[in-house]
Amino acid sequence: MVVLTSPGALRPLHPLHAILLAFPLPLFLGALASDIAYRASFHIQWANFSSWLIAGGLFGGGFALLWALINLFRRGTASKGRLAVYFVVLLAMWGLGFVNALVHAKDAWATMPEGLYLSAITTLLALVAAWIGYSGFHRAGEVK
């Protein structure tokens, strides 16, 4: 059987990388929703939910970031520019997520409004990283 690929064929993520990349977006989005709920109700449990969701997003995102770093330096990988942008977006997501975790470690009342803003930016970066990652990368030796 012959498999035909077009010159611009995209190589999808490795399945394990795709699973790891699936964690940050919903967890950071849940943290944003929890921050919005805390801002509306001031029930301290919402701030606790945000802290745990951010920790989970950092855990999954950290492994996705490590995988992206390894892919960036692997031999034979084409489209280094796209891989570099993907890595930088993941790194920014993880870094701001870590700062967000530190902000959420404060007293619940002290987390507002910085925690809400950081959660929104981190969620947006997780969305961009997922968009880049799931859209695929060009194969080695092929033209864009």
Automatic annotation (TrEMBL):
InterPro entries: DUF2231_TM, UCP029509
Designated name of the protein: DUF2231 domain-containing protein
Domain DUF2231: 14-134
Keyword flag Ribonucleoprotein: no
Domain of life assignment: Bacteria
Organism of origin: Microvirga terrestris
Membrane spanning residue stretches: 49-71, 83-103, 115-134
Key words, A-Z: Membrane, Transmembrane, Transmembrane helix
